Amino acid sequence: MASASLQFFAFILALFGVFGDIAATLLPHWKVNADVGSNIITAITQMQGLWMDCTWYSTGMFSCTLKYSILSLPVYIQAARTTMVLSCILSAFGICITTVGMKCTRLGGDIDSKNNACFAGGICFILAGIFGLVPTCWYTREIISNFLDQTIPESSKHEPGGAVYTGFISAGFLLIAGVIFCSSCFKRQQGAWIYPPKQHHFPSTEQDSNAGYSLKDYV
């Protein structure tokens, strides 16, 4: 029962990780630049994401522009697009596979099949967490390096947005869920290896039959 509860907890973490991963991929809040200027009425907030750039004005107007050209984008944005999409796909596969392999469900067949399904789902979650953690770290590094660069004007500098933090948290949830699922599958096998089943030794019937005869009658 404890293992089933732990798997259910890991499944909830994985669900939060999947939803956060999808939200971080689609949201344009990867880089944020607030240019207030001398007049608060004309304040502008610029947001850049993986797929679009948005501008929010203090007057209430909001406009977005899609990034149609892929080759014109920097390398870290192209890599972030690819890895975040792979992270979403792998995490979705992990949800489907672990639903079959969890002990609290009636799917998946026998215990060995369910353990294999849980292990495969845990591997998917771990890979999804790695694919989600790499672009957020790389993107944050580029933002910090540009922010500390003295040759770049202040108006062109940005700060990490909410999508970056969402990607970090989601990757952590997926990694934790993957480790829990993988460890729960080997718990039973490890216990069987440490405490092997007792073997019952039965005396040989042939020896018992020979023991009943006396050898003194034979020359």
Description:
- This protein is α+β, with helices and mostly antiparallel strands and 219 residues long.
- The protein has a domain at 4-28 and 70-194: Butyryl-CoA Dehydrogenase, subunit A, domain 3 (Up-down Bundle).
- 59% of the residues lie in helices and 11% in strands.
- It contains six helices and five strands.
- The chain has helices at residues 2-26, 75-101, 111-148, 162-185, 187-194, 205-211; strands at residues 31-35, 44-48, 52-57, 62-66, 159-160.
- Strands 4-3-2-1-5 form a five-stranded antiparallel beta sheet.
- A hairpin with a 3-residue loop joins strand 2 and strand 3.
- The termini are far apart.
- 31% of the residues are buried.
- One of its GO terms (cellular component) is bicellular tight junction.
How far is it from the N-terminal to the C-terminal residue, by CA?
69 Å
- Binned, the helix content reads 55-70%
Shape: elongated
Q: Mean pLDDT, rounded to whole units? A: 80
Quaternary: single chain
The level-1 CATH class of the domain at 4-28 and 70-194 = Mainly Alpha
What is the strand tally?
A: 5
State the order of secondary-structure elements, H for helix, E for strand.
HEEEEHHEHHH
DSSP helical segment count: 6
Which fold name is given in CATH as the topology of the domain at 4-28 and 70-194?
Butyryl-CoA Dehydrogenase, subunit A, domain 3
